[in-house]
């Protein structure tokens, strides 16, 4: 409280932490072999232990040596040991959503590993629109994960990332996702997975990632409906057009080693018991090279809660026959043997499931003997929480922060002109709030108060005891501080008490009396008032957007362990903000008569249904998807782009009578190298260097079942002040300029497609290269 320069200890504490770890005996005793210990004469010469043999041969040999009783105990996350074959027990469940986490039982902190680098929550990192950053974060997280595995503190199978679509703004877990756009989510999925799993070892894995939760899962606990009982009624069109896209990208482009099925039913069938989803789509059409795991206790849930089967044995059989390989939970270990004995399941079905899980363990090197002799075996505690890793966490936070409003150039602040700053709000001096959920133990923290104190003298008042802000008891001190200071920074918003797993929001307004505090402080403030918001989901801050006394609004998401330093760097102009919203910020009235349980993406004016996400909702917004300001101005010019593109067709194209344009099934087009190349000049018209996100949207000519616009490409470009950079953009025609009809068939509309880049519009006409017509 009161005046006085806040001393920032974060960097020195982080370095102290690093050196304590570095010199505290990081040469830990080597982790014992999981299997195939070279000192074990009974097993070292068995075929499954011979790393020079093909993995399928090794897998067959290992499974062929197991009894049925041993097999069923390997179908669960807490897989049992097989001592007679020299195989130890293994915990499959570890998490690494935005840093190594101890949420799952497979990972723990302590000893030589007191913490790990905690990056911003995914929704924040997604706002960077920077695919190379996402992959680099994955590389760092997997370095630390391997180090902890080598030290006996973690597994190698990490059930991350969460790539569900942020469909409804109330969803408590939206913060874990890359946002509402399927192209953005798919690109994030593939990039982060490549970083985690490694790209330099052929079929070998650094760690095994997992894309979750498949599919149409985006409701936890809303208005008496929870995820354990929810039946998501989803059209084929929306499945193909929206919900499948991130998972398809994760599997086919990211080459992920695992997919997790969700708790909910999809059109009456539990996701973890649906062969169309698991066996036919994930494993069949997308060719998953890995295993499918249930969300925790999902098999038990569809028996006990959803009453999908009459007996537990039927539930076990249905799950495995549908394509489930591993159960997070004990259900399959308890009931699968009886399912075989009752003739509901064949032992060969179990062999297939085990073949998928064991193959992943072998690709991880777990059957190759002692870890220190393998790739990544040199990683240890010296490689966790390094200064380089912590600097990347800071840079990720900077890149994810979004400048929403900057009236009259209120920002950046100046330490020379703003010598005393009031720092107010329930999130002004928080630590764990900044790392969101599915987090671990951070290396150290820089709070917003500490970060701002690095630049100028601070007066700190919370204003509210917590984000619930139930009363005005602390308002007086906050108002007095604003009257004294040269500038006022309010750090407000949400935390996990408001939005979290199994905690969906009731509405979009700030909790309690936060809005009242903000308005009263802004009215009293002697200098500019800056509103900084921490949240995972969007907030209706229309009052602040329209209040001339609030000069600027900044969204920081949940910015990770270095969040306070990143916020301060943006506020004081050391970093020029370049983030963009990965989700629409709706007004509160958007939720009027809009149940979370209604899954339809497309609007339907006949029943007053507004549609979801920027792709289908055309109504009023507080801030649109992709919005983000800078301290400079960027100007786009299309330097080179085609106006007509021929689409080669395999002898046919199809006229759909419901729309005026001709459309071609993607399966009839020759898609392999069919892309549009654009060259866009981005000029920085301002006096500050800046990084700009080039967002390219397409509006197709098709009828009302197509999105009114769709993100088709994005690129990050750094442009010096008064400088210019040319950016090359490739748009794959079949993938990004196609639309999905009501039957779930992807088609390419012929005719004029409008490409939008900022204020610039360019038309490209797609024309079929053949004239034959086929009805399909």
Q: What would your notes on this structure say?
A:
- The chain is of the alpha/beta class and 776 residues long.
- It has a 6-stranded mixed sheet with strand order 11-16-15-14-12-13. It has a 5-stranded mixed sheet with strand order 18-27-26-21-22, with no helix packed on it. A 3-stranded parallel sheet has the order 3-7-10.
- Strand 4 and strand 5 form a beta hairpin.
- Helix 14 crosses helix 19 and helix 16 runs parallel beside helix 17.
- The chain is globular, with a radius of gyration of 27 Å.
Number of strands: 27
Give the C-alpha Rg.
27 Å
Average of the residue pLDDT scores: 94
With helices defined by DSSP (H or I, 4 residues minimum), what is the helix count? 21
Task: Tell me the span between the first and last alpha carbons.
Answer: 72 Å
Unreliable parts: 1-29, 653-660, 771-776
Counting helices, strands and paired strands, the structural category is alpha/beta
Give the strand order, joined by hyphens, for the main sheet.
Answer: 11-16-15-14-12-13
Shape: globular
Q: Give a quick account of the main beta sheet: strands, pairing sense, barrel closure.
A: 6 strands, mixed
- Summarize the amount of helix as a percent range: 25-40%
Strand content: 15-25%
Short characterization:
Helix content is 26%, strand content 17%. It is α/β, with parallel strands linked by helices.
């Amino acid at each position: 409280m009161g005046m006085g320069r806040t001393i920032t200890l974060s960097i020195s504490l982080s370095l102290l932490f690093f050196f304590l770890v570095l010199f505290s005996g990081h040469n830990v005793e080597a982790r014992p072999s999981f299997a195939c210990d070279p000192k074990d004469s009974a097993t070292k010469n068995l075929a499954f232990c011979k790393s020079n043999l093909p993995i399928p041969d090794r897998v067959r040999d290992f499974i062929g040596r197991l009894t049925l009783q041993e097999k069923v105990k390997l179908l669960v996350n807490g897989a049992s040991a097989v001592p007679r074959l020299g195989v130890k027990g293994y915990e499959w469940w570890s998490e690494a959503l935005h840093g190594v986490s101890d949420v799952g039982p497979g990972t723990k902190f302590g000893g030589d590993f007191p913490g790990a680098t905690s990056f911003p929550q995914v929704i924040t990192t997604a706002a960077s629109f920077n695919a190379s950053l996402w992959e680099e974060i994955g590389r760092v997280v997997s370095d630390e994960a391997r180090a902890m595995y080598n030290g006996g503190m973690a597994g190698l199978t990490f059930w991350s990332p969460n790539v569900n679509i942020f469909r409804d703004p109330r969803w408590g877990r939206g913060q874990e996702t890359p946002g509402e756009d399927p192209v953005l989510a798919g690109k994030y999925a593939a990039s982060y997975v490549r970083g985690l799993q490694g790209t330099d070892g052929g079929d070998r894995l650094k760690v095994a990632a997992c894309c979750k939760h498949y599919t149409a899962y985006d409701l936890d606990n809303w208005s008496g409906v929870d995820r354990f009982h929810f039946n998501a009624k989803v059209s084929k069109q929306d499945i193909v057009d929206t919900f499948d896209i991130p998972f398809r990208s994760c599997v086919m482009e990211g080459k992920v080693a695992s997919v997790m099925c969700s708790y909910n039913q999809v059109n009456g069938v539990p996701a973890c018991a649906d062969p169309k989803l698991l066996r036919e789509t994930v494993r069949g059409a997308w060719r998953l090279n890995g295993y499918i795991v249930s969300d925790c206790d999902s098999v038990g849930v569809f028996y006990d809660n959803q009453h999908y089967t009459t007996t537990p044995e039927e539930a076990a059989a249905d799950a495995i026959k549908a394509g489930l390989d591993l159960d997070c939970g004990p259900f399959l270990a308890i009931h699968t043997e009886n399912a075989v004995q009752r003739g509901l399941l064949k032992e060969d079905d179990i062999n297939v499931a085990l073949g998928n899980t064991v193959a992943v363990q072998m690709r991880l090197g777990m059957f190759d003997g002692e870890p220190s002799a393998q790739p990544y075996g040199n990683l240890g505690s010296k490689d966790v929480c390094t200064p380089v890793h912590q600097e990347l966490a800071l840079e990720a936070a900077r890149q994810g922060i979004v400048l929403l409003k900057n009236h009259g150039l209120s920002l950046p602040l100046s330490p020379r002109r703003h010598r005393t700053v009031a720092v107010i709000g329930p999130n002004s001096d928080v630590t764990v709030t900044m790392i969101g959920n599915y987090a671990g133990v951070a290396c150290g923290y820089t709070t917003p108060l500490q970060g701002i104190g690095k630049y100028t003298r601070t007066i700190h008042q919370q204003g509210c005891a917590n984000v619930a802000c139930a009363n005005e008891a602390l308002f007086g001190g906050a108002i007095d501080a604003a009257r004294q200071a040269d500038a006022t920074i309010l750090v407000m918003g949400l935390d996990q008490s408001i939005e979290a797993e199994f905690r969906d929001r009731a509405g979009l307004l700030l909790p309690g009396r936060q809005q009242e505090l903000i308005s009263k402080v802004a009215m009293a403030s002697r200098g500019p008032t800056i509103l900084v918001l921490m949240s995972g989901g969007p907030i209706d801050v229309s009052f602040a957007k329209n209040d001339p006394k609030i000069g600027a609004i900044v969204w920081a998401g949940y910015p990770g362990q270095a969040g306070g330093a990143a916020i301060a760097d943006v506020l004081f102009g050391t970093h020029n903000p370049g983030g963009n919203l990965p989700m629409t910020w709706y007004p509160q009235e958007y939720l009027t008569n809009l149940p979370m349980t209604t899954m339809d993406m497309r609007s339907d004016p006949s029943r007053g249904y507004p549609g979801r996400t920027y792709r289908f909702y055309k109504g009023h917004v507080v801030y649109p998807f992709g919005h983000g300001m800078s301290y400079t101005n960027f100007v786009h010019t299309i330097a080179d782009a085609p106006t007509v593109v021929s689409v080669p067709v395999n002898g046919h194209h199809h006229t759909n009578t419901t729309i005026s344009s001709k459309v071609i099934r993607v399966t009839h087009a020759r898609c392999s190298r069919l892309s549009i190349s654009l060259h866009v000049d981005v000029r920085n018209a301002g006096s500050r260097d800046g990084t700009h996100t080039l967002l390219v949207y397409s509006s197709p000519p098709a009828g009302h079942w197509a999105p009114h616009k769709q993100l088709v490409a994005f690129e990050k470009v750094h442009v010096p002040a008064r400088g210019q950079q040319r950016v090359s953009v490739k748009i794959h025609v079949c993938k990004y300029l196609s639309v999905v009809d009501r039957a779930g068939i992807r088609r390419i509309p012929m005719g004029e497609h409008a490409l939008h880049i900022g204020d610039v519009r360019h038309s490209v006409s797609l024309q079929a290269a053949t004239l034959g017509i086929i009805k399909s």
